[in-house]
Design goal:
By secondary structure, the protein is an alpha+beta fold. It has a 7-stranded mixed beta sheet, with helices on both faces. β2 and β3 form a beta hairpin. The longest helix has 16 residues. The chain is globular and about 45 Å long.
Length: 190
């Protein structure tokens, strides 16, 4: 399957409209060892914690979560959090299962997700945080135009994580609109 076909087979489904089976497929992926080791909290997530997390998403208008589907199979998750409504600042994250051989899907998901998020939400600045022990993801985000920024107290950091162990990145809408044309040309239209 070529990259354009792969790209077209990526779909984001709002977790609020998912059935229970799909909601718990997300839990399985969240608990994969390769995923947990690059999260702020590496503990396995219990079913009760997962249910509470799902309830928190349903109750708020500041958190959004999508399952990432590839060829109609859930392969990951995409999260978005509103940080500052006045300045239209959000943070985001995504992860993809490591249990399937999905080589190259991360770049395609990032491209589609960034376009989707900037198009469907009033985002002026999008932030993300990457543990420094995860240089591959840091490199991926930079390839898509994210720039390193300084830690600010408004970034919600777990007590067990030191800001010095995290790279803070940001991408504004204007930067994205320029960068995406180059990336589409390189990844999809080549």
């Amino acid at each position: 399957m070529n990259l354009k076909n792969k790209f077209n087979n990526i779909i984001f489904e709002n977790i609020k409209s998912s059935d229970d089976e799909n909601k718990f497929k997300i839990l399985e992926i969240r608990n994969e060892e390769a995923i947990r080791k690059n999260m702020f909290n590496s503990n396995l997530i219990t079913k009760i914690e997962h249910k509470n997390w799902l309830k928190s998403i349903v109750k708020t208008t500041k958190k959004f979560f999508y399952s990432i589907k590839f060829e109609d199979k859930i392969v990951g998750g995409l999260g978005l959090n509103l940080l500052d409504e006045i300045n239209s600042e959000f943070d985001w994250s995504f992860y993809i299962t490591q249990n399937d051989k999905l080589f190259g899907l991360g770049s395609l998901v990032e491209l589609k997700a960034l376009d989707y998020l900037f198009l469907n939400y009033k985002i002026k600045i999008l932030f993300c945080y990457v543990l420094k022990k995860n240089p591959q993801v840091l490199k991926l985000h930079k390839k898509f135009g994210f720039l390193e920024t300084n830690f600010e107290k408004r970034f919600l950091m777990p007590k067990n994580i030191l800001p010095s162990n995290v790279s803070f990145l940001c991408l504004n809408k204007d930067q994205w609109n320029i960068k995406k044309k180059l990336i589409y040309r390189k990844l999809i239209k080549s």
